[in-house]
């Protein structure tokens, strides 16, 4: 059995490790060589994915193809599929999710709670919508946004006008949604098979003070009723969007205990990295199992609590040898270093997961380890 | 950081996975291509290890070199070392351990309990020794024995004579030891750093009804006093032999509660595979940490009980696609499939680890999964 993965970053690298344990060989496609996953996969393919030769090689080398990013244009996925590739999640489901506006309307059509929004074909519509939804208003690009890129919070009509002047957006670029005054951001990892059977992981809290995820607390420090509601919503979203494999459902928890779905990532997700050490089956192994239509493993936690902290780049530098020793000396700490070629500000260079009896204790250990790592 | 591994089998494959998590690239040397580890390492080198070009490439590509088998002749390891390789465990310590007779005399010199034995330079000495040690007598080859290969149990003088006629052994081939009427075989995995600091894993029971390990029960169902004694012996053996990295100390437990050291394997070992899922830090990650002189992780179990069952080949066949589904459907079961190119009788094709609240329960699940796997 051979798994093709479109993308060679850390998500692909951790998927490769899970596949290797099951004896599944991996073929990683990436645009450039030397990415994290290429150090550990069976075969790497480099080149433009619109190139028919690259496509043919990828199809020939893989029994199933999956993706580590929703940014690959759906028409390329459909092209691969029409040439015989078995792609999971399906190109049709990825097409809906990769456009955040169609994602939102699909969730809404299934009566799932999302922040009210409107497409913004032009400035006039944006000014109308801002009257309807009020300020602050969140304006987002429909495609390719991540870690805060492509998200704009505007406070008044002059800011809307300035944004439109700056972007000169084509009519299908932007949409708006009402800003949600959340008190916590939650995430639930779900793994779903094609027959609709699924497992969902414990609800976690994600903290992204500068839009980039810095910290994940597992389980989220919320009451069981709220946690059960978040899980139910996440599972319903996975069903509604007909996704296969591991996905993340990111949610906002408001002060009145209401929960809204923010965004769906149709792939293993940063908020599920804790599962490698803290869960009976990791999000990556369950992803591999799901795309090969194998029974899913338990998503329960094997540890009482886990905290994951991302190792984010601070400045633009080349990699110097990393001294792992001070971090590894801290009890309960697991270090993942992705092996990227260069450090960039806010780039995810690795992550730390600390296991402990309580979230507070795990948090203390994880941050102590993070501070001990210099690179 | 780059780790060279001499050997490309399943032990190398699982070491590669542990190294990759820490961002350590791996260079695997093997005599033939297509072995399990080559599917997942950064670089594979194929060719005779006595070839100076292969040696030079391996040294250039690795910051530290380790081994997955004690069968690589110590003089080749010494040659690599003299050409600048940093090899751990050290060639000197491997030289002592890879000859089971010098291993035994070294343990004995450190007052560690081993079965009494004698070198057998010729038939006359063998007949003398058999009078001294009695029958049944165990005769072993000093080097290259494994899984029962190279071990002969003889019941009388005519059998000794027949064995000598059959083998025509050179004077340094054989030694004899008193047969130990054990009631259980125990093993302790130890990981030791160069400064002598070490961790040891819980004592496990290994079962090898046909010389090949079939099953490992963790923790061993023995009383805490015995377990503590076995741990102490194992740690003392690791110190006595000055080994660095992960090693296994295999022991016999007799009906009178005495414990004797049977053999030492100076590398990660089949009896420690349970640690991948059941322990806070696996024997493989601790091996990598030790050879890079990094702080060792906790060797405590994260699960109450674990049972590992080897997936042994039954007949000589090529690999047909493995249906993992029935095994993965069993709760608590983790399947490792090594990806070997062909099935041979008693060949280790993979293993299953089941986690549960008790050893009995884990054993039930592991064997249920084993029976469900057909290949």
How do the strands and helices of this protein lay out in sequence?
2 copies of one chain form a homodimer.
Chain A: E1 2-6, H1 10-21, E2 25-30, E3 43-46, H2 52-61, E4 64-67, H3 74-82, H4 91-98, H5 100-109, E5 117-119, H6 123-133, E6 137-141, E7 151-154, H7 157-167, E8 174-178, E9 182-192, E10 198-200, E11 204-207, E12 215-218, H8 224-240, E13 245-254, E14 259-265, H9 275-278, H10 283-291, E15 305-312, E16 317-318, H11 325-328, E17 333-337, E18 342-343, E19 348-356, H12 359-372
Parallel strand pairs in A: 1-2, 1-4, 2-3
Antiparallel strand pairs in A: 5-8, 6-7, 6-8, 9-10, 9-11, 9-13, 11-12, 12-15, 13-14, 15-19, 16-18, 17-19
Helix pairs in contact in A: 1-10, 3-4, 6-7
Tell me what you see in this structure:
2 copies of one chain form a homodimer. Chain A folds into 3 domains: 2-87, Rossmann fold (3-Layer(aba) Sandwich), CATH 3.40.50; 116-178, Dna Ligase, domain 1, CATH 3.30.1490.20; 182-372, ATP-grasp fold, B domain (D-amino Acid Aminotransferase, Chain A, domain 1, 2-Layer Sandwich), CATH 3.30.470. Chain A starts with a strand and ends with a helix. In chain A, strands 9, 10, 11, 12, 13, 14, 15, 17 and 19 form a 9-stranded antiparallel sheet that branches. In chain A, strands 3-2-1-4 form a 4-stranded parallel sheet, sandwiched between helices. In chain A, strand 13 and strand 14 form a beta hairpin. Chain A is of the alpha+beta class and 375 residues long. The first copy, chain A, has helices at residues 10-21, 52-61, 74-82, 91-98, 100-109, 123-133, 157-167, 224-240, 275-278, 283-291, 325-328, 359-372, and strands spanning 2-6, 25-30, 43-46, 64-67, 117-119, 137-141, 151-154, 174-178, 182-192, 198-200, 204-207, 215-218, 245-254, 259-265, 305-312, 317-318, 333-337, 342-343, 348-356. The A-B interface holds A 1, 13, 16-17, 20-23, 25, 39-42, 280, 289, 292-295, 297-298, 302-303, 321-322, 324-325, 328-329, 331-332, 334-339, 350, 355 and B 1, 13, 16-17, 20-23, 25, 39-42, 280, 289, 292-295, 297-298, 302-303, 321-322, 324-325, 328-329, 331-332, 334-339, 350, 355.
């Amino acid at each position: 059995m051979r798994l093709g993965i479109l993308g060679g970053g850390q998500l692909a690298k951790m998927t490769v490790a899970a596949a290797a344990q099951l004896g599944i060989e991996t073929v990683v496609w990436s645009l450039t060589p030397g990415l994290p996953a290429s150090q550990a996969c069976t075969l790497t393919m480099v080149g433009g994915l619109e190139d028919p030769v690259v496509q043919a090689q990828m199809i020939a080398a893989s029994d199933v193809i999956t993706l580590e990013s929703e940014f690959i244009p759906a028409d390329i996925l459909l092209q691969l599929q029409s040439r015989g590739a078995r792609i999971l999640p399906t190109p049709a489901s990825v097409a809906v999710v990769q456009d955040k506006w169609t994602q939102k309307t699909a969730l809404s059509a299934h009566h799932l709670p999302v922040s009210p929004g409107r497409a913004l074909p032009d400035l006039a519509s944006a000014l109308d919508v801002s009257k309807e939804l009020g300020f602050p208003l969140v304006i987002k690009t429909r495609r390719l946004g991540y870690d805060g890129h492509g998200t704009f919070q505007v406070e008044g009509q002059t800011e809307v006008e300035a944004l439109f002047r700056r972007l000169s957006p084509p009519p299908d670029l932007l949409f708006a949604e009402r800003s949600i005054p959340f008190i916590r951001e939650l995430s639930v990892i779900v793994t779903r098979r094609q027959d609709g059977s699924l497992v969902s992981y414990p609800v976690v809290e994600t903290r992204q003070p500068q839009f980039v995820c810095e910290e994940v607390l597992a389980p989220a420090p919320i009451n069981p009723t709220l946690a059960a509601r978040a899980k139910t919503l996440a599972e319903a979203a996975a069903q509604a969007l007909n996704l296969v494999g591991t996905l993340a459902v990111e949610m906002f928890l408001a002060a009145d205990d209401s929960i809204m779905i923010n965004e769906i990532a149709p792939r293993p997700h940063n908020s599920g990295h804790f599962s490698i050490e803290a869960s009976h089956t990791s999000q990556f192994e369950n992803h591999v199992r799901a795309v090969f239509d194998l029974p899913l493993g338990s998503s329960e936690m094997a540890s009482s609590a886990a905290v994951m902290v991302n190792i984010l780049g601070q400045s633009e530098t080349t990699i110097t040898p990393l001294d792992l020793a001070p971090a590894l000396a801290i009890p309960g700490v697991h270090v993942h270093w992705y092996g990227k070629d260069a450090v960039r500000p806010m780039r995810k260079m690795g992550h730390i997961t600390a296991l402990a009896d309580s979230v507070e204790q795990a948090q203390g250990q994880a941050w102590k380890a993070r501070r001990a790592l210099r690179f």
